[in-house]
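Possible regression after last week's pipeline update?

I re-ran a chain I had predicted before the update to compare outputs. Posting the input and the new output here so someone can diff against the archived version. Not blocking, just want to make sure nothing changed silently.
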Amino acid sequence: MGAAVLSLSAGLINAVAFSGFSHNAVTHVTGTVTKSAMALASGQFTAYFLSTGLVMAFLAGAILSGLIIGNEHLRLGRRYGLALILESGLLLVSYLFFTRGASAGELFASAACGLQNAMIATYSGNAIRTTHMTGVVSDLGSMVGNFIAGRAVDARQFFLLTIVFVNFYIGGIVGTYLFRALAFDAILAPAALTLATGIAYFIYLMYKNNRAQQIYRRYRQTYQEPSETGN
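New output (post-update):
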């Protein structure tokens, strides 16, 4: 569910950024690195500094994720909620710059995507990345090839990666329509979505902790307290 929501959000963010005044991607860096190199080689220094800034902003977001979460293996209790709330804050800052026609909006949106992409954990044998589809499509293609060759394929992995791809695509569609209707106000949609997801994670974590405490109390009442009384 988390991967589905966040890939939807990333697709939406990228569509809004692409539709904006600079037409730059903010959810991935491969093409942006090439644009930076081409701009430098062509002496287009304004484009060079913006492209390089997008890469560095994405890197800064990933560093922030590493500081907050640490190990990327999925485990309940890690500070995913805090990371998502910070991502929402970065998107709100990007919105403020976008509405003023400032390219710094792209930098903060890129940092938000770097944070999100780095926080997504290894799950079911796959590193689930939600802000770009290169690895997802590569893994899906490899699985299809193995299936055609008669080898075993993990159906759960295939289903998970398919969900990520489909939701990113849907996010692009939704982001395009929202930008046409709302301009840069559309960036508030993924900001709200990541904020809601972060809060939902905190609520879920509290619920799980309470359940664990209840089970532990019942265990003590059933197995430990009678023996302690007898002693």
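Follow-up from reviewer: compared with the archived run. Residues 2-230 form one domain. Marking as no regression found.
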